[in-house]
Model the fold of this input.
Amino acid sequence: MKPIISLQNIVYEKENARILDNVSFVFKPGEQWCILGPNGAGKSTLISILCAYSWPLSGQATVLDRKVGQGISAWRYRERIGLFQPALQKELCVYHPAITALEVVLTGSDDSLASYHDYTPRQAQARRLMENFHSSIPPHRPFGRLSAGEQRKILLLRALMKEPEILILDEPYESLDIPNRYEIEQIWQRTIETRQLHTLCVLHRIEEIHPLTTHVLLLKKGQVFFQGLLEEALQSERISELYDMKLSIHNKHGRYFCAIV
Done:
């Protein structure tokens, strides 16, 4: 079977600084991955390349058998990829204050950031999506009037609107409290189980790794520090070296967490 994602010797530079240095990575069918690493490790840049928002200086990125930047429009390339970015919350509130929760979900069908098209044929699908995840959010309430947790849920449903084959999540739990973090996790874990969805999740904290994760990519200073099975990645010595501090990794009730030694 062909890999879900294949990166071969990716190099990316910005303003004469090397952000990614010879990164190779293979994501096979049936796996669920997360990416961990210190600030500045290149995690978000890697996501930007996978979603065809940035192009590498050299190397090849392939997602779902489509190569970044080779003979296909960016929109066609992304039509099977769902991207969840909490950073969109602020952009929507500032630049599109009147857009409703339902309209935000609908924009996921074409990756717009505003309701530029007639989405009438897709409204029933968007409403079902909101109902299926027991959303109590009124569809026509302005997005800017929702709580931060509600906005995050709507953005996740937006990423699922295309019924993607792979969902890429860039720091999905940033600034969320525990109940909202758990609800977000439950939505996309349920989607993994019901749609056989593949996920790649960028995280800052080990405690946020969801129980269905099978593999971990560790990045440090733009290079692959480790890639492989979850239990092999989350070893105290390895994580201590990744973050340059003495850490102890523990697993309780299927959840990993770390403590400073």
Observations:
- The chain is about 30% helix and 30% strand.
- The first helix runs from residue 43 to 50.
- Residues 80 and 164 are 5 Å apart (CA to CA).
